Amino acid sequence: MVVPELRPWRAARPHVVRFASAVRPRLTRAAETVRPRLARIAAATVPRFARPDRPGSPQAARGARPGTWLFTATAGTAGLALAAGVVTAAGPWDSSGQRTAERDRAVALQAARGTDHGGVRANAGTPPRGPRAAPPAASVLTGLGGTATTVKSAPGGKALGAVLDPLLSSPALGRHAAAVLDVATGEQLYGTGSADALTPASTTKIATAVAALSAMGADHRLTTRAVYEPDTKEVVLVGGGDPTLTARKKVGDLASLRDLAERTAAALAGQGVREVTLSYDTTLYQGATIHPIGVNPNIAAVTPLMADEARTDDSTSGPAARIADPAADAARKFGDLLTEHGVKATPPGPSKATTRASTLATVSSPPLAALVERMLTNSDNDLAEALARHTALAAGEKPDFAGGGAAITARLKQLGLPVKGADVKDGSGLDRRGRLTAGLLTALLAKAGDPAHPELRPVLTGLPVAGFTGTLTGRYAEGAAGVVRAKTGTLTGVNTLAGTVVDTSGRLLAFAFLANDTTNPTAAQGALDKAATALAACGCRL
Q: What ranges does the record give for the region Disordered, renumbered to this chain (predicted)?
């Protein structure tokens, strides 16, 4: 396939905003730090140049110098403040530092949405570093595909091998596989064991994202409902499979349980109802609720009704203790909120809404494009399992772990992707029995960049940016920061990395590195990062 070049600004504009979002906090801090220092310099300078004139000294020169120093100090402060202000003006911004207006853009070739990925725990266990210089804007824009497909020819396989083979042969990587693909043509440029099916860990989420977007569309939303059974005066909270439903006061664009309760109480008041039996409906999903990994802080029980991913703290991503019964907890919170609005509710119990029930109120998630970006950026396991089940529902499969895996595989096959050897066991990649190939992962990324599939673009825009966002925030201290965009994967003995990079000649490449049987996760992660960095630094056309 050939990706046509867009007009430079049309291609660059959304990515300029993303880059600005990444550096905005650093500009603001810099302005605040430098402003008092410049003010002190200015204050110290005024007395020096305001001393009585010495006999014979040129008056004009002395009179001009105080103004010059003051102007310099003021201009320095204003320059930094203006830089931060310009970035702010491009907002509004959400908690992750991405522009909220982006998520409202139509899903088309120019679509490059941003969303609230929950910046509180965006490092996902990676220690954050202090402020440092941002990468050049040109490399960031090219890395996002602005002009990468209209430059020199693709790298040569032999030259790539000369660079990557020594790095991927590191003992730290154990049993490994790799593939590099030219996004513009779909041609595999490099491969070592690229057809070998290995445990992919969280890079599975790339497959989940492509399947979900293909099955439901980028504008699909997940809806939570409150319905009323007139015969029994029962209010049923019906789970719609939205793990981002929130009971917190600050909600951004997420569906709000508080809003749902307020509007439900108002609807009941309009019918003269002030006391109800409260129930909750979780029949949207089937099968086991506990992931095969067992009870784990990386994932809640998989149920179609939960608030704030059943987290017991105020985090929005990363590991956290979870409430054992997310649905019952969400229903209890809903009942308390109804009481605050003048409707007395009984303690909730499980039930199923009937066809006779009338809808009192609904709240809906952000569009699927935004959910996919959040899932990929933060490696959100709860969202991944929810999207796998919704993909199963869209395909007519049983909405459980096995049905989600079958639906994802079937959807990828329909897209013409190389699924031989793939065995998808879940949506998140937490199941160690799952298998994907490096060749499939690179093909998924290339498909997401295909102009014929604009609905898949959030797969690329949701990938963490090296050194700046999500699970890559604390990685790539040097070299490829801002240039590599990739999904990470980590389980005990498994380290993986798959994403996109632009080489020194401006060519957009998709890559996938899978390592199994690793014994030192830090060394394995470092080896994968070195390989991606080398790919970014490689012209490789000899």
A: 112-136
The predicted structure's pLDDT at residue 92: 37
Handedness of CA 411, 417, 420, 423 (dihedral sign): negative
Q: Which of 214, 178, 184 is nearest to 439 (CA)?
A: 178
Residues with Cβ within 8 Å of 301's Cβ and at least 6 positions away in sequence, in order, are 289, 290, 310, 322, 324, 325, 326
Q: Which of 91-100, 174-183, 413-422 has the lowest mean pLDDT?
A: 91-100
Q: At what angle do helices 204-216 and 438-448 cross, to 10 degrees?
A: 40
d(CA 254, CA 248): 10
Q: How far apart are CA 392 and CA 397, in angstroms?
A: 5
* Angstrom distances, CA of residue 195 to CA of 166, 192, 241, 405, 420: 20, 8, 34, 20, 8
- Which two structure tokens, joined as six digits, stand for 403? 């049905």
346-347-351 Cα angle (round to 5): 95
Annotated catalytic residue within 139, 379, 447, 530:
379
Rounded CA-CA distance 497/484 in Å is 11
Q: Dihedral angle at the C-alpha atoms of 129, 134, 138, 139, nearest 10 degrees?
A: -20
CA distance 301 to 289: 5
| Mean predicted confidence (pLDDT) in 351-376 | 97
Q: What is the pLDDT of residues 307-323, one digit of tens each?
A: 999 999 999 999 999 99
pLDDT band at 463 (very low <50, low <70, confident <90, very high): very high
Planar angle of CA 538, 539, 542, nearest 5 degrees: 115
Instruction: Please tell me which residue in 194, 202, 214, 279 is annotated as part of the active site.
Output: 202
**Upper half-sphere CA count for residue 65 (Cβ side, 13 Å):** 13
CB 437, CB 199: distance < 8 Å: no
What is the model's pLDDT at position 152? 62
Per-residue pLDDT band for 70 (boundaries 50, 70, 90) equals very low
Question: Any catalytic annotation for residue 21?
Answer: no
Is 279 a residue of the active site?
A: no
> pTM of this prediction?
0.76
Taking the C-alpha atoms of 106, 108, 112 and 114 in order, what is their torsion angle to the nearest 10 degrees? 30
Q: Say how many residues make up the chain.
A: 542
Report the DSSP pairing between strands 344-345 and 275-281.
Answer: parallel
Annotated active-site residue in 21, 96, 205, 256? 205
Q: Which residues of 222-254 are buried (b: 16+ CB within 10 A; e: fewer)?
A: bbbbbbbbeeeebbbbbbbbbbbbbbeeebbbb
* Residue 202: active-site member: yes
Tens digit of each residue's pLDDT (9 = 90 or more) over 211-269: 999 999 999 999 999 999 998 999 999 999 999 999 999 889 999 999 999 999 999 99
